[in-house]
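ugh ok fine here u go
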Amino acid sequence: MADVNASSRLRGHLAAHGIAEGLIIAVLLGWHVLSLGMPDFVLPGPLPVAVRILELFTDATYFVH
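structure:
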């Protein structure tokens, strides 16, 4: 009985993670598709935003803030 309950809990846990990660991928994909039809100053794509965030944490000029 304990093995069945643990297996069921594990299956539910994996399903919840799959749904959460799938939702993140769907949002990023939707963001990318929407950004294709708009100029970068209106809606930049996820990749330029990720590069800019990476610059924020790695560029020494931003460390003082």
